[in-house]
Structure formats: C-alpha cells, structure tokens
Amino acid sequence: MTSIQGILIAGFVIAAIFASTVFRTKLVYRLMALLLFLTATILVIFPDVTTVIAHALGVGRGADLVLYVSLVTGIDVALLLYLRIRDLEQRISRLVREVALRDARHITAATEPESTEKNRVTTRL
Questions:
Q1: Are the beta carbons of 30 and 23 closer than 8 angstroms?
Q2: pTM exceeds 0.70
Q3: pLDDT per residue as tens digits for the range 55-96
Q4: Cα 85 from chain centroid (whole Å)
Q5: Tally of CA atoms within 13 A in the half-sphere of 12 that contains its CB
Q6: Around Cβ 8, how many Cβ atoms within 10 Å?
Q7: Mean per-residue pLDDT for 118-124?
Q8: Contacts of 40 (CB under 8 A, 6+ apart)
Q9: Which sign does the torsion angle of CA 27, 80, 15, 51 carry?
Q10: Cα–Cα separations (whole angstroms), residue 74 to 39, 77, 91
C-alpha cells in the first residue's frame, strides 16, 4: 500500500463517520453513504479494477472513467441542491405570508371592539 492510498482510506473513514452522524435519522442515506465509501476504498486499494471496468465500458483509462462519473455525479448533486433550495425558499415565503396575515388579523381583531363600542354609543344617542 502506498502512502496516498493510506491517506485516502483514512479520509474515507473520517468521511464515513461524519456521514453517519449527519444522516443519523435516515437509514437509507447512511447505507448509501456506507456503500459509496466502501466502493471508494475498494477502488483505492485495487486501482486496476477501475481500468478493467473502464475497458469494459469502452473508456481508455480508469482515471478517465472516475472523472466522467464524478462529473455526472457533481452535476446531479448541484441540480438536486438547487431544487432543494428553491423548495425551501418557497416554503419560507409561504410561512412569512401566513404569519403576516395572522398578525394583521390579530391587530385588526384587537382594534375592532373599540370602534364597535363607539358606534353603539353614537347610535344610542
């Protein structure tokens, strides 16, 4: 094992521990993260496997295959994050509107009895 393999494996272990704490409530996410880190560790320990897979898929080198997969994954993650942020912004806007309407109703309800009392006194005279 080379030194870079040891560094990468240590990084994967740290990332796996971090992912398990972040995804502690979602079992599916923890299992996906575990599968990802195990696959990455296996590919670091046996780098020729990527070359074999790359040749089977018609790619020249294993490094090119890793680059292509990383590029597609990065674009997918960016799009998913964008959709999540857009959804959260819409939820926040809806909540702000609801709170503003509720507060406006509360203020209106608090001032209405006074004006109603004045109308009753005026009509009795």
A1: yes
A2: no
A3: 999 999 999 999 999 999 999 999 999 999 999 999 999 999
A4: 8
A5: 19
A6: 16
A7: 56
A8: 8, 12
A9: positive
A10: 17, 5, 26
